[in-house]
């Protein structure tokens, strides 16, 4: 069906070209001798073995990709770019929300500290020394009765992120060289997106580094191109690592993912 469509389109092109050639011949015949086509540069169309103008039908020549494959590759590339755009927009939204969350958390902490200070002063002023001792004893008991660390949907503080990396990722040798105890040169720990771009500013094209993301329990791979920086989120599960959205491959360790790509 596609070949018939190309044939019809080509017939229309040849008909249009023939009409234009006829009009040009009439126009040239009316020109003075000094401006005739024989005295000017012209274009000679390449002819095929049948004596007609040589044409190339996409997908029919030896070595050409089939038209269906070309369309599929174009669609996959468009989908990949759309996914990358959505990922960048999602990253920007998460950074904005993280900033708002940090401001809210700091304000709540300040209010809580003020309330604790006022309560402590009031208790110390109007209570006996025995009551003060009982209060301190209760505080001491509460500190030792806190529940074990529970992983929340996203890190609430840098300390929680360090605890997650120490208890869950370090035993899996995340950030270390394959089959070794040395930290990998591409791993830079907990840094911000701006810090990663600063580190890659004077690096060569194709350079990259991996850092712990403060937005989610995960990592980010920052990559330097010729003109911009690209950031790719790495999905972390219990037993595998893989790029979020763009790549369906899964790897047992973070080093395996880096070596694969």
UniProtKB/TrEMBL annotation:
Q: Does the keyword Coiled coil apply?
A: yes
A cellular component annotation (GO) from this entry? cytoplasm
Q: Which ranges of the sequence are coiled-coil?
A: 80-116
UniProt xrefs under PROSITE patterns: SH2
* Entry keyword set: Coiled coil, SH2 domain
**Domain SH2 positions:** 186-261
UniProt name for this protein: SH2 domain containing 4Ba
